[in-house]
Each structure stands twice: as structure tokens, then as C-alpha cells.
Amino acid sequence: MTTALTIALCILMLLAYIFDITSSKTKIPSVILLLVLGFVVKEISLAFGWNMPHLVPILPVLGTVGLILIVLEGALELELNKEKLPFIVKSMLIALLPMLVLSFSLAAAFSYWGNVDFKNALGNAIPFSVISSAIAIPSARNLSTVNKEFVTYESSFSDIFGVVFFNFVTENDHIGTGTWGHFAGQMLLILAISFVATLALAYFLNNIKHHIKFAPIILIIVLIYFVSKIYHLPALIFILLFGLFLENVDELKHIKFFRKFRPLDFSKEVNKFKELTAEFAFLIRASFFILFGYLLEREEILDGSSIMWAGGITVAIFIIRAIVLKLFKLPLNPLLYVAPRGLITILLFLSIPVTQQIPLASKSMLIQVIILSSLVMMFGLMKTKTNKESPGTAPETAV
């Protein structure tokens, strides 16, 4: 049985790799193929009567580690300088505003038609309002440089804002002045931790001479994230800041303190670290979606009672997104289509406390929104030119 499982895992990962490298040609998001692959594996195992281990507890762990690595991978691709500050602020606002509008609108609908408390309805609505960087970033790989950078910033900020907003709503029974003060304290604390931890990890990365040094750093990053999570700190901010620092330390070389990092030598180590992070992120992301597909039930995908809600939510996602992109004078094509729901949506949905779950926001609705938003992205990108600087996507136009 062990040999068979090992062979199966190797084959599944190789198929995931094929999906990844062919997605630029087929325009089919690899997440859809991975979900289908996982579902087919389950059907085959049932048909042959194979006894599979209990895999449900593994899903949140894989998802959280995948989220960490994906945000880190995205941050390691982003250049940071004064000229890009307006671009970054704009991507932050475009990540935040649609999320807030959709969350409160959907919460009002859940509260009205589900006859539930608005706060609980809001906690259930937030997962549907967050763009999944796990799907958006790989899918933007063949867009123009500026659009790809925008998608990376926007989806990473969306993940961070979504997690912070979700935790704030679900972990506080009552929201008042004291709650906001506590939240401000948490933000200041995570910024302080991020500053110290980033400098320490960057120093280790640049000075450890042992032939194994990248894996321990990734393990420390994951450890810091989970310890911060115990104390309800927005740890994704640390992940983003750490990645941005590594990628942009050469921008700080005019400051005497940062010359100690030897920016030229440091960049070589960062490039190696980026490659390893990308490899790990691929394995974890592929494993997560295959496992999620394996755990899907046919009834959940085809549930007619939730399809109208899922369709309405998907339409609302892209209408709100179109309005916001127009307000900020960004091109609708191709940015409108890159708003998939996925890994972060699943993680937040699974994190809703039992006492705050509402029947209306079902797993079937979640799955259908993920599939529908990915299909919209797929068909939208199919009609988008793939050359790196196609008309209407030059930096001065797109930002």
C-alpha cells in the first residue's frame, strides 16, 4: 500500500506540473484541473474499493503553509521604490474597497434571507470577498509586466486584508472602542516583530555558510506565522514585509546600516531563495487543490439550492470590480477577469467558528463560487493578448 501511494503521489505531482506549464497555452487555470484530478482520484479509489487514510485534518495545514509560501513568493517578485508608491497605494485600495463593499452587501443579504445576526453573516460573507493569490498570481504569469505586478500586489493585499478583517470580525463578540484599540496594538506589535525578524532572517541568509540554509529560514518563517496566529496577530504582514525587504535591499544601500548586507552578494542568495520558495509553493499549492478536489462530493458541486446564490455572488464580484477599476482609471481588459476565489476562500471558510456558521453560506456555495470565478478568469484571459506589453497595458496606461 505504501508503494502504491508513493507512486500515485509522484504521478499526481507530475500531472500538476504539466497542468502548470501548459496553462499559459490552454488558458485553463490549473486550479480547475487540479480539483478535477483530485475528484477523479476519489472516484477511482471508490470504484476499486481502496481504503484511503483520513485526510480532512491535513487540508487546513496544507492551505496555511501554501498561503505563506505564495504570499512570500509574490513579495519576492515585487520591486519597491518611490516611483512605485502611488502604484502600490492604488493596488491596496483596489484590493480593499471591493472586499468591503461585497462583504457588507453579501452580509446584508445573508442576514435578511437567512434571518441571522449581521455580525455572523459578515463573518460568513468575508471568505467570498477575498481574491485568491494562489490562483491569481500564477494565472497572471503571461500578462504584461505591469499588469502582472498589479495582480501580485492586489491579490497579496487582498489575502492580508481578508485575513485581518475576518479575524477581527469572528474573534470579537462585541466591536467597540476597546476592540479598535486592541486591534491597533496588534498591528503595532506585528510591525515590530516584522522589523526584528526580517533583519535577523536576512542576516542569517547572508551569513550562514552551511550548505543547508534556505530550508531552516522557511521553517522559521512558518513558525513565526503560526506563533503569531496563536496570539491573533496579522502575521501575513510579516511575510509580505520580509519578502519585500529581501527583494529590495539594494534600494537601501545608501543607508550605512544596510550596507552590512552587501547588497550585490545578497541578491545572489535571494535569487536562490526565490527559486526554492517557488518550488515549495508549487508542491504545497498543488497538493492542497488535489486534496480539496478529492474531498469534494458530487452533491456539493451540483447542489441546485445554492447555484443561484453562487451565480449572484460571482456576478456581484465582477460588477463591483469593474466599477472600482473604472474609478481608478485602470483597463478592464485583462484586469477585470483576474479576481478568482480559491485557497484563501477555503481557509477562511473552514476557520468560521461553529457557533457563527450559518446554513445559507454552505460548502456547495463556496465550491460553486470558486469554480465560476475561475471559469470567468479562464474565458476572460483566453481573449487577452499574451504579449508582454500589448496595446493598452503599458505602465503609464495601466497605472
TrEMBL record:
Subcellular location: Cell membrane
InterPro entries: Na+/solute_symporter_sf (IPR038770)
TM region(s), chain numbering: 28-48, 55-72, 92-114, 121-140, 183-205, 212-231, 307-328, 335-353, 365-382
Topology class, membrane: Multi-pass membrane protein
Predominant subcellular localization, coarse grouping: membrane
Keyword terms, alphabetized: Antiport, Ion transport, Membrane, Transmembrane, Transmembrane helix, Transport
PANTHER family the UniProt entry points to: NA(+)/H(+) ANTIPORTER 1, NA(+)_H(+) ANTIPORTER 2-RELATED
Record protein name field: Sodium:proton antiporter
Source organism of this protein record: Polluticaenibacter yanchengensis
